[in-house]
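Most newcomers find our protein records easier to grasp once they have seen one. The structure tokens are whole numbers drawn from a learned vocabulary of backbone shapes. The record below serves as our worked example for the rest of this section.
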Amino acid sequence: MYKAPVDEIAFTLKHVAGLGNALDAGLLGDLGEDLVDAILHEAGRFATDEVAPLAEIGDRQGSRLVDGKVVTPDGWRDLYRNWSAGGWNGLTAPEEFGGQALPHMLNVAALEMWNSGSMAFALCPTLTMGAIEAINSHGSDELKNTYLAKLVSGEWTGTMNLTEPHAGSDLGVLKTRAERRDDGTYRIFGQKIFITWGEHDAADNIVHLVLARLPDAPAGTRGISLFLVPKFLVKPDGSLGARNDLFVHSLEHKLGIHGSPTCTMIYGDGKFGSEKGAIGWLVGEENKGLACMFTMMNNARLAVGMQGVAVAEAATQKAIGYAKERTQGKAPGWTGGGMSPIIEHPDVVRMLLTMKALTQGARAISYACAHAIDMSHRASDGRPHWQERAALLTPIAKSFSTDVGVDVASLGIQVHGGMGFIEETGAARYLRDARIAPIYEGTNGIQAIDLVTRKLTLSNGDQVRGFIAELNEIADQVRHSNLEGFGATANQLDAAITDLGEATDWLLAKVGDGKTTEALAGATPYQRLFGLVLTGCYLAKGGLAPAQDGGAERRIALCRFAAENLLSEVTALKDCVTNGAASLAAAKIILA
């Protein structure tokens, strides 16, 4: 069973990602280390004791559509309500609507633990948090006053409605339409698919944020508007009124996250209400909906990155626990009686250390991204720098962490051997759940496009070059630390950071010359390259940090393993980046 690694999470937040420095500088108001620790421990307790025990039930039963209503797995309705009663939905929400306005770093740390307990369950509040941010940033005062308090409390939940059967990532061709009414409302008509928690029995109302097109809208993405469309209309006194003209048509049958109802939603076919059309309210301005929705999507991208970290952590814990108990053969040097635990076998050790290093690296990257977001809002100066740093790290945190989730969960099955392929052990669920994360909220290929064409070019490349310079400083600190445990880590970091710099300069030159196709041919290898270098550097930063918990030797050993085993891939990835265009040319022959 999963046990939240609260101490490791707290250490990474404070000593690697930047929370400790922000606290010392007084940038987080009256938040202190004692409160941080109390929040993390209670979030960990809830994830360990209440969420994780229901994960298997959720996977086995799934959410079901019964007589037009979605029924969540046994115990999940009460679990959600207990979670809401704990105030978790409002950690970062505005105080004026009942939130606690705490740093984003604490929220993503809590999200990690809840997703490790059950990714399918944690998807519901994840979408609600994004809806809160979008409405608070772009909604009218009337919408804020009507909906935010209930969303912050968790009494109501939120969704994000983008995808249609013919329009996946290409939102410019969506067909859902909106019609103006004289009273200032709109009527929404259309079908949306893959809507996470689009219908369920855990909350009293569901607030859908829906992208749609007005009749006179410009073509493409410039003509998309965002609308708030509640399941139940809200009366002037805040109580629930009539059912809106929308419903769930069916649930998707998925590889994983079975407990999460993934819905096909129908808007405006006349099933409910006195006339056809789901009643909606404009969020932001007409034809500016995609910009409004991106507020929610950027929130979701980091949250999805945390799903990758979370699944990797849970899969690693399960694999280590199994490897300590399972006996098989006799490992080299085994002197005990009978068969040795498989954790004594060198190849199993290699897999487990790879799992731990990738998990902790992805965690640090994601927390550093959250730190940059916090500083972009809270730093007294340098906000443009932190805004760009958050923008640079978001596609890496989303893509690298979700790839890690899949890779680590797959290694977890390998550690289990044949038993990992059997559902009863629970190892397979992690891989099934993790596999969606590199796909939704912008596929990892789309994240690579965004990274190379939009984020590397921030401040004409000065942001990424400055970041690489900071990584060089970490390598220098390792070199001058005189800690024998690091071995040749400094040299290996130097080589990897040099490769990162060369690949970055090559891509910036291609984008600057308008040779976008050549740049994008190597974009995905570059994204992984960047993630691996950050993993090595952040693990080193952890090894250099004060050893208050007595774990310095362990962290230095893991850093050295990563430098000697994972960073060897970086040079090959750099070659993939620079040779990508040639590969595309060959593809015309191979794939013809």
The CA atoms of residues 46 and 114 lie 8 Å apart. The mean pLDDT is 95. The longest strand covers residues 186-196. Residues 289-325 form the longest helix (37 residues).
